[in-house]
## 1
Amino acid sequence: MENAVDAMKIAFGVFVFTMALSITMYMFTMARETSDAVLQRSDVTTLMEYVETSNMIGEERIVGLETIIPTLYKYFKENYTVIFLESNGTPIELYETQTDPSLWSPGYTNKYYDNNQDVRVCSFDVDEETRRREPWTGNTNYYKQNLDMFLSGGTFVSPSGNGMDYSYSGFIDEYSDSQFRESLGEYTYNDVSAATGTDTTNIKPKKKRVIIYTLVD
């Protein structure tokens, strides 16, 4: 009799534990889904339709650094391009690459300046930085460290210790009182780096989101 009672107690305990575990898992799932939904609604880039940059249409808005900074910290995670321009459309020089143009990957060109091998940079783009062999590529922590130095001022020290360091004066200090016109778009490019050998005939064009910040006078 006692064994039967003990067995019932054990079975009830297992039942209660299973129910508690199920409820806990359900609550965690609901919390995560709610969090994801809130984040998605707060991310304006998920609500935009991106179009060809050669024919920019749709809404534009005037923004400050409070909008630009969070956008920059997502470019390497979501793989979109962020470009900065003067009010007249001239590229804003953000930094000069310390890499050797002769070592840039085949197919890479600096399309924002007249000279394809110009070392001036006006954009943040994972693909372009990888082809230029920037020292922070390939590691999300290094991307963040480089942005920290770019925004606040300081030196990003090359992780390899090869002396390829980047010194920044601080984007925040320089543009703290500035406003930018934010334009959203999309551009098409051929990913030559995906070619097999020298055969580029079967490379399919890719589309990439781009966010352009044009300085407002």
## 2
Amino acid sequence: MISSRKLKKRDFYLNKLIGFQDTEPVKVITGIRRCGKSSLLKLMVEHLLNTGIAPEQIVEMNFESFEFKKMSAEDLYNYVKERALPDRRMYLFFDEIQRILRWEDTMNSFRVDFDCDIYITGSNAYLLSSEYATYLSGRCVEIKMLPLSFAEFMEFHNFELKTSKSALGGTKAYAYDRNGERYELHEVFDSYMRFGGMPGIADVGLDQEKALTLLDGIYSTVVIRDILERERRRGQRRITDAVLLRKIILFLADNIGSTISVSSIGNTLVNEGLLEDEKRIGAPSTHTVQAYVAALIESYFFYDIKRFDIKGKEFLRTMGKYYIVDIGLRNYLLGFRNRDRGHALENVVYFELLRRGYDVAIGKVGSTEVDFIATKADDKLYVQVTESMNSETVRERELAPLTKINDNYEKIILSLRPGMDASYDGIRSLNLIDWLLSV
């Protein structure tokens, strides 16, 4: 068990859980392995204990533990029944519940038979898909958890943000470590872009060899437990070719932010010599590649994003894009080098928009494209991402699609070097790092 004294706060997610405390729906925390779901459950337990809930009202079970490895749905029910207090509300915490066959039947039985508040985690979207969703339809609320944001990365690695007077008379922000050493914000951001946001990195420190070992463990666990093992349990189309799976992962990681169709992936892999030509051995069918890509999305390794025609006001069936859940995992897969910086920055912005509660799409405006249309409730935000706005050519390129949009919603360009002008005809040019920290 993780000591509560060592738990780092994830208040953004914890406050969401607290907001649903003692409500009927099952609280389902989803996300890639090792992004902090287990710690979030423990933070919630800590919150309950601090607010007067007795320890005997809380049942915690982690199904990655050998203690519960061979447990059936009936065993799980009896385990909880033996501990349930007849006159008190029980708080039930089930970590990696997808390892129990027919777990959804047990959750419904708990809801019917006991006065209880249920919290579960899972590392695969299949947890809430197809027939499982039917069981819990209208009876669950999903908390989607991601690796650390840049603001959380600073906190986890003990950097404190302080402002000082600048030579020009304004103020400038710096990051200070626990020893009082001062760093430029871009230096800390470069570390984030290098090591990524997996919480475990904070435990080993910003050391490349240790970080690679940790990321290798995450990668192997996702591939083996959440993709290969999942398919065996599912009893349907099996993803058995671990070599093909890795090649598709490498291809998607190398092409984040690029327009891709699933049907073209197999052909591209053949053309690049990563797969044998079909005349000799048989290239994977589009259906097969689709199944592998779907498994990667279900395990939260990659996220897909659709294109939206802004003028036609409809989603397009044509090629979308993929982003990897953690930029550190990409560096682990492809090597630590400054590749494709623009798309890597896009990757970071995409997940930050998701964290902030937006639904995100790519915007098509005539023959041009807006990196992101971010919408929620009555709010809409158009976002372009580029490394620098110092070049006139780049400015014209980034501004062009935004100037074609004739509504009054906010339009921003995020970059590491925004240039001297803060606004271009109402389109704001913002420092990307400042925007990431403006939570």
## 3
Amino acid sequence: MNPFWSVTFFWLAAALCVAIALAFVLPPLLRKKAVAAKTARRDINIAVYRDQMKEMEADRAGGLLSEEQFQAGKLELEARLAEDALAKEDAVMAPVASRRLGFSLAGVLPVAAFGLYFWLGNPMSLVAIAEAQASGGGAVEGQVKGEHDIMQMIQKVEEKTKTDPNDGEAWSILAKTYAAVGHYPEALTAYEKAMKLRPDVPSIMTGYAEALAIKNNRALAGKPIELVMQALEKDPNDIKGLELAGIHAFQEKGFAKAAYYMKRLYKQLPPDSPYAQDILEAQKEAERLLKGTLTGMDNLSDTGNGKSKEKAANATIQGTLSLAPALKGKVGAQDAIFLFARAGASGAPVAAIRATASQFPLEFELNDGMAMNPDNRLSNFKEINLTARVSKSGDVKGASGDLEGTLTSVKVGSKGVKLVIDKVKP
């Protein structure tokens, strides 16, 4: 029913109830009723006539009236009494006070009834209820309707993919929607289609990795984590990618890496959101496990007397990466930033970070969790060289025209390191 008519019918019903109540109360007060005065006047006359009769009897007994005079007076009194009894009674109006009360109730009762409802009740609930009924009912019905709407949307997107099987965006939307409602087998199929059509989109990579992991009892090892790492290379701030990377690190007991990814993820979230609080707790738990056990470092296989583990736990470099003011005009917000730590002037990095220029100045932390090779990690060295690069092409190898900055002989364990990108690669 239309909300307008629902509310209108309610007020009509309320007015009818008030009218019925007044119909019972007012008539006795407002009706011009004939009140017989005969009975009251007759009673008075009888009393008067009785007194007169007593006086006449007393006069007769005292010799003031003869028997004939007494009988004549008695007949006269009886005739007058009979005349009064047979006379037509006079109708009188109801008391004025009663009619005033009736008119007062007629005005006050409706005002009081509706006034109390507006004061103590909730008139706006009428509109809310009517609108809820018009839109499908209560909370449960609304939830069912919401789910129905989602399924309708899925059907529309499915029809779109059938019409145009090469629409990668449609396959991506379909996959994400299936995942949102927990239909992961269907989501996996849709992600496979989307990956073939849009293989370089980070959000598709991480969504596909999640669907694969759920199919594999939520294990991220293998292809899922490979997809996650590829996605983070393209977008270091991909939220799902950071979350899955942190979960994988927990699964592998790599608590240093888990803390790192959770810390990065937390910075991308509204700090007061429940999700952000969960991520912060995960970060703290990873740090607690790392500090308490000194085990589970990524790819750490040393089982010695604990000295190597302690050394690995302390193998970090913290600092800030910034851009020289003279080069700011040469950098776009989406340009890729690479930060490498190497044991010498060349060779494989012992740790690496990828970010975007929009994050300048970039606070960084390097640790063993970022090792690209388990046998070549930060804790193996006392000093390293840092190289930072802004790549226009996004290629990790770099090219002429890229912007660079370097620091040599940085001690492992250093904090407050400042690295500036200040030159153009020839």
## 4
Amino acid sequence: MTGPLVNAAVIVVCAFAGCFFIRGVPPRFEEILKKAIGLAIIYVGIKGALDNRRTLLLIMSLVVGALIGELINIDALMTRFGGWVEKKLFTGRSGEAGKAEKTRKIVCSASGGSFSKGFVSASILFCTGSMAIVGSIQSGLRGNHELLFAKSILDGSISLIFGASMGIGVAFSAIPVLVYQGGLVLLAGAASAFLSDEIVREMSAVGSLLVAAIGFNFLEIKEIRVANLIPAMFIPCFVIALFG
């Protein structure tokens, strides 16, 4: 669990640093940095998706995964959870409600974003993609944490900007990151004979397309409910296992 723990810790530290120490950055700098990161995320996502060798499987995974995700409405669930955490974090007890609400407004206005949006966007970005999947599997199968350490550097840089632009909710994305990557590490150790290189490659390709979708959201071209596409990442695992 060394890799997932380090990754989560870096996200928390950098998000808090961005939220409380870099919040004075002029909006125009935040805007251009978000666009630059958006372009980089699209490039990383498309580059990872090109490793796919089963185009029809990738298309089918996206379609079936989208239907499952929309049926469950994962995006709404994550947004609701982010709102619940925000309420618990900032709702004061007797005599402190006004102070807590003032603190919440200061944090959100200073960062220019909402708690739920920062939590959901950062959670999806950090949990999807080839680095999260392959890095966790390598950590579980071989005890090799190098890829997750590299991911921690990238996630930390993004958390710094996200924290400044979208608020303290970004720090709480470390929770799903730790649960998701930690779960993959444990599953990889338990199912080492089952997860072939082909399964990992196809799952990573689908996840990379989800990362590219996050980049388009950054550029504000068209809002995509990427959370509802998350089930698509796991379709290749079942299809290849059942039909080869």
